[in-house]
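[INFO] parsing input record for Glucan endo-1,3-alpha-glucosidase agn1
[DEBUG] input buffer:
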Amino acid sequence: MAPILETAVSLLALAGTVAEATPLLKPGRHASPGVANILSSSKRSLHNLLARYYGSTYGFTKPSPLPEKRDTSLPDGWSVFGCVAESTDERLLQGFAFSSSSLTPLLCVNECTKLGYTMAGTEFGDECYCANSYSGNGGGLADDSTCGMGCGGDSSETCGTTWYLNLYTYNSSSLASCSSDSTTTSSVASVSASSTVSELSASATESATSSLDLATLIADASSTESASSSQITGTETASSASATATSSEAGATITASATSSVATSSSTSTASIYEDSDNASEWYALGCAIDSSNRVLSEYSVSMSDMTVNSCLSACEDLGYKYAGVEFGEECYCSSTLASAVTYDEDQCNVVCNGDEEETCGGTWAIEIFELISSAVSSSCSNSTASATSSVASLTSGVSVSVTASASASSSAATSISETLSESASETVSQSASANETESATASLTVSSTESVSASTTATASGSATTADSTTVPSSSAEHQVWAHHMVGNTYSYTSSNWASDIASATAAGIDGFALNIGSDSWGSSRVSDAYDAAGSSGFKLFLSLDMTSLACASSSDAANLVSLVSQFASESAQATYNDKVVVSTFSGSDCAIDWQTSFVDALTAAGIDIFFIPSLFSDVSTFSSNTWMDGELNWNSGWPTGSTDITTDSDESYISALGDKVYAAAVSPFFYTHFSPSSWNKNWLYRSDDWLYCTRWEQLISMRETVKLAEILTWNDYGESSYIGSISGDLPSGSEAFVDGMTHTGLLSLTNYYATAFKTGAYPSITEDELVMWARPHPHDATATSDSIGRPTGYSYTEDYLYAVVMATEAATVTLTSGSTTESFSVEAGLTKLRISLAAGSISGTITRSGSTVASYDAGSDFSYTTSPTTYNYNYFVGSSSS
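[DEBUG] output buffer:
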C-alpha cells in the first residue's frame, strides 16, 4: 500500500468508519549477523538453569501476574486469550464467520464449537470469526483495553473493536496432568518363540512415563545437574530378566525397574512429585537452538512488540502447545512437537527481549526453547504412582522382541516391537513416551495396528498396511442401532422412488434407519412425508432431527411448531422408537430461548406422545446431567479428528462420563471437506480423513459397544461437506457441485455393512466375496490451484497424499495397487487388510489375485485422475470398489 493511502486509511480509522491494523513484522524477519544487537552482558543466569520455575521456592522470585482476564462463563475447554490485531488484506480467522446484532462472546464461541473450530474471535461489536489457526500477518497481542467495543447482544461485555478481536481458544487436553495410583494396561498377542530383552537402563534422575504426559524437575538454583546412574543389561530366551536403578536428587527419590519374560514385559517407577500449589506453571529450559527457515518450532508464530519470555510462554500455553520458543527479541514460536534434529549453542542467544531489557529472547536465527512441564491449570499432586504393563500374545511364528526402556537427560524413552509374520512381509510398530525426573510410570506399549485373530492380517511392502483393530468384539446383550443422517434440504426434487432407492441401499448396508434433518424449508415436511410412505412397514425406521440452526426456537409459537412437526409423524409405522418411545433428535439447539422441558417435551407428553430425546447440542458436557429433558446426547463432532493427528476416543469418554445413566450416541464419518466462498456459505476447511478414518472410527465404536449402543453415520447425503456415503442424487447445495460431481462414495457401503453388522450383533460377518475398496484425493495437499478464488481450505496441511485401500479377502491372496506410474504388491491373509501407497499423477486401479487368477479388480480409468497441477482445489475423495 502506498504511503498516501496508508495515511488516508489511518485518518478513516480515527474517524471510526474504517481502520486497518498496523502490520506486524512477520516472524522470521532477522537483522543480518553483522548488525544484530549483541548483548554479551545480558542476564543469562535464569536461562542457564536446568528448569525454569515460576514461584518463590528455591530462591526464585515470583513473576509479575498476567493481566486479569474476564470471566465470560465459557464452555469447558475454552478460555480468554486476549485482544489481538486483525491481519491486513485478509482475515486473521478464516474458517467461518457471521454477524449478529445480538452477538455475545458465548454465542460466538458456541457457533465455532458446533463447527469444530478451536479459535473464536469477536470483532467490531457484531462480528464472529472461527478458525483453527491464524492467517495473514495479524495476531499480535494488544492491551485488553484496546478491545473495548460493547457486544451487540450485551453491552456489558466487549466484542473487539475496529480491526481488533477478542480471541478465545479451546484446549481439550494437551497440557500436563497429574494422576494418582493409575494403571495402564495394553495387550497384543502371546509370544510363542524366543524373546530377547536388552538395554534396560535408568539414569539417576529420570523414569519413563506413560499415563502422565510430562514430569517435573525441581533442582537447586545454585547447582547444576548432578546424577549417578547405573546400567543393567539382561538377555533371556525362555526365562526372565530384571533391572533396577535407584537415585535421588534435589529431594526427589526415583526408582525405576523393568521386568520382562516370554509372555510379558513391564516397567514401573515411583517418585515424589513437587508442584507449587500457589502459582505452578513450570517450564523446562531446553537451551538455545540454531533455527532455520524450516523452523525448530513450526506450528504457530507471532511477533510481539513488547515480548518477554513470560508472555510467549503464556501465549503458547493458552493455545495448548507443549513447546515455546523466543527469538530475535520479538518473535514467539509454539509447537506440539520439536524438530527431530536440533543443534544447541548457548552463545547465540544474545538479543534482549523487546518487553524486558533484563532478559534475553533468543538471537539472530537462534531460539531459546522451553518445554511445558506442568500447567497452572492442572491440580497439584504428590507421591503419584503410576504403573503400566504391556504384554504380547500369540503370533503364528517366531517373534523377536526388543524392549528398550531408558531415561536420560533428554527425557525420552522408547519401546518398540519388531515382528516377523509367516507368509507376509515384516511390520514395525513403535511408541515413544516422554520421561522426566520427578513423576513416574512405565511406557505402556500400545500397538497402533493391532493384529486381529482371524479376520485380518498384516502385510508390508514399500507401501504400508495395517489391519482391523480386533475381531474379538465385546459382548453386550443390549440392542444396538445404526442410523444415517439424511439431509432433507437436499431432496427438493425427490419422489417416492428416490426415497425407496435410498432406503434399499441403506438397508443392504446394515443401516437401521435415517435421521431426517429437517429445517425451515416450506416443502420439507412434504419430503419427510414421502420418506415415511416409502419406508412403510418395511422395517426401515425414520426419525426427525430438527435442525435448530434453521428452525426458529425463540418463542412459544416456535415451540408449538416443533411440537407440531414431531406430532405429524409420531404415529407412522416407520417411526423409530427407543425404549418404546418416539425418537427425536436435533442438530444444535443449545442457543434456543424456549424451555425444552415445558415447551417441547411436556407439550408432546400432554399430546400423548412420549419421546426419547437425544439432541446434538454442542454445549458444555457438564450441563448434560442436569438437563432432565434430554434422554441422551449425540456427539456430532466425535466423527472426525479436528487437528493434525488421527482420531481418538477422548471425546467419547468425556461424553460418556458426563452423561452418566443417559444414552450416548456416537458419530462415525468417512470424510469432511467444504469449500464455499465468503459470498455464499463462507465455509472452507477440512478435517483429517487419512489413515482409513472410516474403518478406524468403526473399530473404535465396536470396541466400546458395551457402553455405546447407538451409532449415527454422518452422513448419507451431505454433499456440501463431502461426508456422504449414499449416491449423488437430489439437489446439491449451490457451489458444491465443483467438488462433488464425479466423486462417488458408494464404494463405502460394503464396508458399512461389514462394520455395522459387527457393531449390532457382536461378531464380524464372514467374508464370502473378495472385494477391493480404494479412495484418493485428486491432487497433492500442498498443490497450488491455478484458478481458485476461495483459496486452500483450513487444515489442508493435516492431510497426506496416499491411495488408501481396504481388502476383504476370502483366502490368502496377492493385492496389487497402482497409482499413475507407481505399482506395489502385497501379500494378505484372509480377512480385512488396510493398504496404502503414495499417489502419483494418473488414474488408480487394483487387483486381487490368487493362484495366478484375478478374483477381483477395480480400475477407475477416466473417472478419476490425480494431478499435480489442479485448476481448483478439491480435497474430497473419490471412492472405487470392485463390487460396484
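[INFO] Residues 556-569 form the longest helix (14 residues).
[INFO] shutting down worker
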